[in-house]
UniProtKB/TrEMBL annotation:
Signal peptide (from-to): 1-18
Xref: InterPro entries: DUF4232
Start-end of Polar residues biased regions: 188-197
Keywords assigned: Signal
Protein name listed in UniProt: DUF4232 domain-containing protein
The organism's place on the tree of life at top rank: Bacteria
Region (Disordered): 165-197
Domain DUF4232: 48-187
Short name of any one Pfam family annotated for the protein: DUF4232
Length: 197
């Protein structure tokens, strides 16, 4: 055997030892595809904020200056969640600071729509169950000397004192210079309704 062939054979032997063959004891086998239990549990908790519900919104429905926004609250926990009354809502600016906006439950001077003026009733959400409420306002400018208000975000909690979640309505909250919006009560939603985005 020539020196060149001997060197080539030695390199091949070293390479074979360094890379284990499939099925050998050193072969780690296929990579696991399942998420470890601890990671999965953490991801589930992160997707279900306190107090066990997730809040989403639909698109703003605009007609002749009247704006309506559907808010949904889904029980993402593993036990029933009791809702009674109105969501607690604050309008935030670009800097996430509250704007000077009066938020009132069932404000009839905005509209006489039944969704806004209905009386609140207790709602029990089973895991996966959803309740909805409506937020309404008017985009009116009644005084040209008053700066119009436009909110960028809504901070919404299931009720006063509960942890809030921040959502971003498409197009913002264009209140003109009315400085107010009305909030309807939580009502049970049909399980067949499409989820809000």
């Amino acid at each position: 055997m020539t020196a060149r062939r001997a060197a080539a054979a030695a390199v091949a032997t070293i390479a074979a030892l360094a890379v284990p063959s499939c099925g050998s004891r050193q072969d780690p086998g296929p990579l696991p595809t399942a998420v470890p239990t601890a990671v999965a549990s953490t991801a589930t908790q992160a997707a279900c904020p306190d107090p066990g519900v997730v809040i989403r919104i639909g698109d703003v429905d605009a007609a002749m200056g009247l704006r309506a926004l559907t808010v949904s609250m889904t029980n993402c926990g593993d036990r029933p969640y009791q809702a009674n009354g109105y969501p607690a809502v604050r309008v935030l600016g670009d800097d996430h600071k509250p704007l000077d906006v009066r938020v009132a439950p069932g404000t009839s001077d905005i509209t006489v729509d039944p969704a806004l003026t209905a009386a609140p009733r207790p709602v029990t959400l089973q895991p996966g169950g959803t309740a909805t409420a409506v937020v309404m306002w008017r985009n009116l400018v009644t005084d040209s000397t008053v700066v119009a208000t436009t909110g960028t975000y809504l901070e919404i909690a299931p009720t006063t004192g509960a942890p809030a979640q921040t959502v971003t309505p498409k197009g913002g909250i264009d209140l003109g210079n009315t400085g107010k919006l009305g909030v309807g009560p939580w009502t049970a939603a049909s399980q067949s309704e499409p989820a809000q985005s």
